Amino acid sequence: MSDAILCRFEAARSIVRDAADLAMSMRPPSGGPTAKLKSAQDWLTEADGAVEALISARIDTLFPEDGFQGEEEGRTRTGRLRWVVDPIDGTSNYARGRNRWCVSLGLLDGDQPVAGIIQAPALGETYTAVRGHGAFLNGRPIRASAVTDTRSAMVEMGWSSRVPDGVFAEKAATILRLGAMPRSSGSGALALADVACGRLDGYLEIVINLWDVAAALVLLEEAGARVSPFLRDGGLEGGITLLAAAPGIAADLAVALEVPLD
């Protein structure tokens, strides 16, 4: 990996740390959601905009030639190297004062993920990865689960109002028929990070966007997980399906759920 990428990664670690501190300082108290409702279960807090603005401004100062894309403002700058941020992934949790949310920042070189940082400050966890340099949780190397039987697997499935109820129910039923234990915890980025470190054996989201996965894609690759071809199949342009899984059950999940693998 080039010195330019490694330099950006080190700078991004500091930027994400400051962004996470800002998000913590703005976190609503526990209770009913303190946020605006964009659509069913799709929340927007004041922190979403503030955190994205902080990251965008810092990157623009340090690397003005780089592209930038955020969940809230869209693609505001173009460049071969493109930063993609989800300022608060798991906003439904964040808006209620819960702990399972994160700041997610990924770096793409063209259409290839090359670095990613996912920081969950309320959990005290930071995931990091640079292509070719391994994947880490709080500085310790991580690997995907060694599970080989879906009957002993734990699989999470993300929910979206953009998915018809019947489709969601069908996929959930398929996971249950495989004997896997289902989960749903409200943060796509952290679910993917859990697959990378073996806390989950699989994660399916029928419609998910680039900002949700940009940081996690390199983390998953470096941790040895298998992932559906999200970027190749249209993830750069809009929301599509993503499956990430431990290598020992990835093929079984992909066939049952009718999702192609890499």
TrEMBL record:
Q: Per the similarity annotation, which family is this? A: Belongs to the inositol monophosphatase superfamily.
Task: Show the InterPro entries listed in the entry.
Answer: Inositol_monoP_metal-BS (IPR020583), Inositol_monophosphatase-like (IPR000760), Inositol_monophosphatase_CS (IPR020550)
- Record-given protein name: Inositol-1-monophosphatase
Has the keyword Hydrolase been applied to this entry?
yes
Record key words, sorted: Hydrolase, Magnesium, Metal-binding
Pfam families with a match to the protein in the record: Inositol_P (PF00459)
Which gene underlies this protein? suhB
Binding locations of Mg(2+): 71, 86, 88-89, 212
Q: Which GO terms describe its molecular function?
A: inositol monophosphate 1-phosphatase activity; metal ion binding
Show the Gene3D superfamilies listed in the entry: 3.40.190.80, Fructose-1,6-Bisphosphatase, subunit A, domain 1
Per the UniProt entry, what is one GO biological process? Answer: inositol metabolic process
| Co-factor(s) | Mg(2+)
